[in-house]
User: Fold ATPase from Photobacterium ganghwense.
Amino acid sequence: MSDAIWWPSREVAIQQDESRQELKADLHRFVIDRLEDDGLMQEMERPELQTHVYDYVRTYLKQQQVVGFQNELTGLVNELLDEILGFGPLQNLLDDDEVDDILINGPRLIYVERKGQLSQVPFRFMNDQHVLRVIRRMIAPLGRRIDEANPMVDARLPDGSRINAVIPPLAIDGPCLSVRKFKTDCMTADTLIQNGAMSVAMHQLLRQCAAARCNILISGSTGSGKTTLLNVLSQYINAGERVVTIEDAAELQLQNGHVVRLETRPPNSEGQGEVTPRDLLKNALRMRPDRIILGESRGGEVLDVLQAMNTGHSGSMSTLHANSPQDALLRLEMMVTMAGFNSTSALVKQIIATALDLVVQVARLPNGKRVITHIVEIQDVADGQIRTQLLYTFKGGDFSSVDTLSTALRAWLEEAE
Assistant:
């Protein structure tokens, strides 16, 4: 009985929503046609264009004898302006400083991340073509394209935001778009401490190690705060040091004054012209760097950055996707092997142990809070294993000191001071 009552009402609601979307699509076409007929499609500031759009919307509603939209006139006009000048339903989310990530799973499902928590928002696209049109508008200034022959694209917008899009036939339920917004305000160590991401003692240690040119690997899952922490640690690099950064999409906001930023390039539509992280890393070694910052270690470039750490480029840093410090070391071993380095497991472990000084593990908790869960000192190789020493950990909602620095690393920090 309850189903018999509920389903018809739900169907009516869906039909009404579809009718509103069709009306908005028709209104959009009407306004665009009138703007073109009146020669107003040239570049125009939003306030000036807004006046004309208001007039066209009123004319349309009157001609079509549409009722029920008068109270939504301002909202309709703003939606149309977003379509004409911006990125449609995404524009409000892109302008919202509290939104970190935007995830579109087809035209009717849009999610955002705020303060580490995902939630669905009541915005929607008209159809698959509408999503595809917005994606193409985003990537057009970048000289990129997406179509059936090239159904995936990964790019960086002019404001620094990263976008990734996948369209049918690869995306079964319609075009998918992920946007990771670029934060212009670089987070500070004080903010991380106030937010409970680390303790004062942990910060003091990391600050000393970064300034003393220790080699640091930051490990964690997607969205756990690896890049944020890397930006914070960069604040303690001496201004006289030359730093070269290598990234797939430039996200780092290093505070050091002497920074050379390099970015990889994907292959073109003919499969040519690709520039990999390993290509950039090999070239960076010829650029007289004091430190090398590798945005993410994920392939053959790991071998080159470890060798750089071992041959005079102390203070280099990188991030890596792993769930624990132990997993991070295992992943490094695996990637070195996959890079074509034909040697024994013992030698691979020795290269890693002598290159790295610290592994810092970050995580995003179920409530969205990001914290440093482990700080581990890398010591040496014994009995066929990389020996580590856990310095700090996060358990039960509190940070605690587990052990002290080794004599060798303590002496290094003292000498650097």
